[in-house]
């Protein structure tokens, strides 16, 4: 490319006109009597040589951008969203739900189908959604109904809440989440109505899933009424690190060894990982290994979590 006599001075003048006087590249080209591509080259050389130094000043008090980006690179994620730690468990869940809602508002498109799992954090997301019936969204449960306790965490209930929040449509899955054995599950799956909903669940554009931990008696799965403390001991002994839609996996993201998964009526983990956007939402120290297992298994590609969890996930694994 053609060089000019005194190009260093020309470069400085070009950079001053562009960055200090806010002239366009075309305007500068006319003033200096050179082509616009030459101006573009001079500006690029100004940045590379250090003549121009660009500093981005983030006004946000807690800037987790570097940590978010590091985790995205480490686990090949589309996006990581970190919220502040909060000692109050309920407040922490609401902060996570709000962050997830903000992300949803940014990415949802017209006519999207959104799959939803269950959980106390997921159920709060609708509180932070601004209604927009023009989007024509459809909400679909990814798993059957949870037991007889805490109806508000029931997938169908969560789906209806979100549909009302978005002013969208919804489908319901009228089946238990867990049955006694695989044969009974297979019998359920022969029902055309259930099969159709689960097929829709496999093909959603976005999935929002809670990440459960089998090591705590405060988990959503314990609240479901399907499990007791003895069950937790068995899952822990088998090496379970976490669950998504009540389907277990170990710290490496392997799920095949857990026979219990064959008793769950819902979209299977292998199908969940094929959904274009899967947002995993989880906070609290007890969820760290569960999140790592979900990341290693590639079950999610967007993570919403709190700072201490994010730091542990990046530093310790």
Brief summary:
The protein has 13 helices and 9 strands. With 317 residues, the protein is an alpha/beta fold. The strands form 2 sheets. A 7-stranded parallel beta sheet has the order 1-9-8-5-2-3-4, with helices on both faces. A two-stranded antiparallel ribbon has the order 6-7.
What would your notes on this structure say?
This is DNA-binding transcriptional regulator LsrR, DeoR family. InterPro entries: Cro/C1-type_HTH, NagB/RpiA_transferase-like, RNA_pol_sigma70_r4, SorC_transcr_regulators, Sugar-bd_dom_put. It holds the Pfam family Sigma70_r4. One of its GO terms (molecular function) is DNA binding. With 317 residues, this protein is of the alpha/beta class. The protein folds into two domains: 43 residues, Homeodomain-like (Arc Repressor Mutant, subunit A, Orthogonal Bundle), CATH 1.10.10.60; 253 residues, Rossmann fold, CATH 3.40.50.1360. The chain has a seven-stranded parallel sheet, with helices on both faces. A two-stranded antiparallel sheet has the order 6-7. Helix 2 crosses helix 3, helix 4 crosses helix 13 and helix 12 packs across helix 13.
């Amino acid at each position: 490319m053609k060089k000019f006599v005194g190009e260093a001075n020309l470069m400085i003048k070009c950079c001053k006109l562009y960055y200090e006087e806010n002239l366009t590249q075309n305007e500068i080209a006319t003033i200096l009597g050179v082509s616009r591509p030459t101006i573009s080259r001079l500006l690029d050389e100004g940045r590379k040589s250090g003549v121009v130094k660009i500093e981005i000043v983030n006004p946000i008090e807690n800037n987790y951008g570097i940590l978010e980006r590091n985790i995205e690179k480490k686990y090949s994620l589309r996006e990581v969203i970190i919220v502040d730690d909060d000692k109050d468990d309920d407040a922490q869940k609401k902060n996570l739900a709000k962050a997830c809602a903000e992300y949803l508002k940014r990415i949802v498109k017209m006519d999207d189908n959104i799959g939803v799992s269950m959980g106390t954090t997921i159920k709060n997301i609708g509180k932070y959604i601004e209604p927009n019936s023009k989007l024509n969204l459809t909400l679909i449960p990814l798993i059957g109904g949870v037991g007889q306790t805490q109806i508000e965490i029931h997938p169908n209930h969560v789906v209806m809440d979100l549909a009302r929040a978005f002013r969208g449509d919804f489908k319901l899955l009228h089946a238990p989440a867990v049955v006694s054995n695989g044969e009974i599950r297979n019998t359920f799956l022969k029902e055309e109505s259930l099969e159709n909903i689960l097929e829709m669940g496999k093909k959603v554009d976005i999935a929002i899933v809670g990440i459960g931990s089998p090591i705590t008696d405060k988990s959503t799965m314990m609240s479901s009424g399907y499990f007791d403390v003895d069950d937790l001991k068995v899952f822990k002994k088998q090496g379970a690190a976490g669950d998504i839609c009540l389907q277990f996996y170990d710290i490496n993201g392997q799920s095949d060894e857990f026979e219990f998964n064959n008793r769950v009526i819902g979209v299977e983990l292998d199908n969940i990982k094929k959904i274009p956007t899967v947002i995993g939402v989880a906070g609290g120290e007890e969820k760290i290994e569960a999140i790592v297992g979900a990341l290693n298994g590639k079950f999610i590609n967007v993570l919403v979590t709190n700072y201490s969890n994010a730091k542990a996930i990046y530093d310790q694994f």
